[in-house]
């Protein structure tokens, strides 16, 4: 697991009034995922874990998945 991504996810829900990952948090997570411009297997596994076990707002999860898909599509072309 990527501990930086997990730390960001945990920080996102701590102190949040509803305990969900917001769109602002999703943007921070996405920036951390693409920081090396490569989506590693460890990052992939960690993102899968975060998506499956953390509560997200619908808007945040939709945005994150759309951005991730678009970025991955572009990465595969390169």
Give a structural overview.
The protein is mainly alpha-helical and 78 residues long. It has four helices and no strands. It has helices spanning 3-13, 23-33, 41-53, 58-77. Helix 2 runs parallel beside helix 4. It is globular. The termini are far apart. The mean pLDDT is 91.
Keywords:
single chain; mainly alpha; 71% helix; 78 residues
Compile the SSE list and pairings.
Blueprint: H1 3-13, H2 23-33, H3 41-53, H4 58-77
Helix pairs in contact: 1-2, 1-3, 2-4
Mean pLDDT: 91
Q: How far is the N terminus from the C terminus?
A: 26 Å
Radius of gyration: 12 Å
How many strands, what sense, and barrel or not for the largest sheet?
none
Q: DSSP strand (E) fraction?
A: under 5%
Share of residues in helices: over 70%
Query: Unreliable segments (pLDDT under 50, ≥5 consecutive)?
Result: none
What characteristic shape results from the CA principal axes?
globular
How would you summarize what this structure contains?
Helices cover 71% and strands 0% of the residues. It contains four helices and no strands.
């Amino acid at each position: 697991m990527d501990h930086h991504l997990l730390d960001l996810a945990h920080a996102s829900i701590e102190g949040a009034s509803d305990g969900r990952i917001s769109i602002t948090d999703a943007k921070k997570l996405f920036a951390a995922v693409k920081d090396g411009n490569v989506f590693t297997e460890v990052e992939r596994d960690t993102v899968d874990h975060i998506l499956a076990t953390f509560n997200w707002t619908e808007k945040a999860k939709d945005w994150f998945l759309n951005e991730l898909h678009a970025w991955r599509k572009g990465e595969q072309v390169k």
